[in-house]
Amino acid sequence: MGMMGMDNKEKIYNKLMDIVKEENVKVDEMLRDHLYTRLGGKADFFITPSTYEEIQNVVKFSKEEDVPFTLLGNGSNLIIKDGGIRGIVINLKHLDKISSEGNTVVAQSGARIIDASYYALEQHLSGLEFACGIPGTVGGALYMNAGAYGGEIKDVLDYAFVVDKEGNLVKRLASELDLDYRTSNIPDNGDIVVEATFNLTPGNYEDIKAVMDDLTYKRESKQPLEYPSCGSVFKRPPGYFAGKLIQDSKLQGTTIGGAEVSTKHAGFIVNKDNATTTDYIALIEHVQNTVKEKFGVDLEREVRIIGEDPE
Ligand SMILES: Cc1cc2nc3c(=O)[nH]c(=O)nc-3n(C[C@H](O)[C@H](O)[C@H](O)COP(=O)(O)OP(=O)(O)OC[C@H]3O[C@@H](n4cnc5c(N)ncnc54)[C@H](O)[C@@H]3O)c2cc1C
């Protein structure tokens, strides 16, 4: 139960059921079921709002009652510790509509960015091809300024709607989000992304599809997609490639518990055999220390680690 007594927990549960539909509030939800790594403890509350207004009301409630909340997208860039997350985890899977108007594609933040890129293809719109294999949500992609093969969200985002930390629905231009290599100011501002509008260019269906097929082939042949993982663990250090440094440090195949530095792509750490988050984090640190020792380079994590240590 931790910091939250039973009475308090019931009070929060009842209040959350006033804000979002009853079936969209879960208690003690196993987060590993929502994460690409298949690792991590439980969330006290796991809610899936179905309107922007519900999100606004959750934010206001969280502020008034001092109950923290955490956003969880598709869980493809997150490691959640084995002790789980206290307070409310918000997942926007019910807000997944994608539409288009003129040369724009408008996607709610719970939609998968992969689906937005295929939707753009169907509209003969070019610009989102790079995202056709990134397994995150639109919200997670903005938060991370996700990118691949020379493209990134920054190139195509026009504006977003967010719920700010006061609970207001606010429009933010792309230029106001400080989008940079795998970062944005979304965490600093405490914004929840609810919708994104992408500015695209009319193109030829076959040409757009050919680019997407090529990127899919490259991804499938290079990445160990057969095991749970969180993608590239580290950012590209200036002047180097993380994968090459790890490979040259002879770290591929190294294991701690059930976690392994992938033999197929050195930048990935895979959950090969029932790893715990503790194994996974220990292996990340081992890689960082070894590369620092051998090459004097600091590997900065791209993947985010959140949650509590086990009691
Ligand atoms: C096999 C594999 C391949 C990958 N390839 C790439 C790649 O090519 N390029 C790349 O950039 N990334 C890649 N990734 C990483 C990942 O897919 C991206 O970082 C993605 O943008 C994360 O989105 P998500 O919805 O999964 O976010 P999550 O992992 O759920 O969350 C990431 C962060 O975003 C926050 N967040 C999520 N939704 C919202 C929201 N609506 N509002 C505010 N904050 C929010 C979360 O709180 C968290 O801090 C890969 C991952 C895997 C597993």
UniProtKB/TrEMBL annotation:
It comes from the Bacteria. Pathway: Cell wall biogenesis; peptidoglycan biosynthesis. Residues 39-203 form the FAD-binding PCMH-type domain. The keyword rRNA processing does not apply. Its cofactor is FAD. Keywords: Cell cycle, Cell division, Cell shape, Cell wall biogenesis/degradation, Cytoplasm, FAD, Flavoprotein, NADP, Oxidoreductase, Peptidoglycan synthesis. It catalyses: UDP-N-acetyl-alpha-D-muramate + NADP(+) = UDP-N-acetyl-3-O-(1-carboxyvinyl)-alpha-D-glucosamine + NADPH + H(+). It is found in: Cytoplasm. Its EC number is 1.3.1.98. HAMAP family: MurB (MF_00037). This is UDP-N-acetylenolpyruvoylglucosamine reductase. The lineage of its organism: Bacteria, Bacillati, Bacillota, Bacilli, Bacillales.
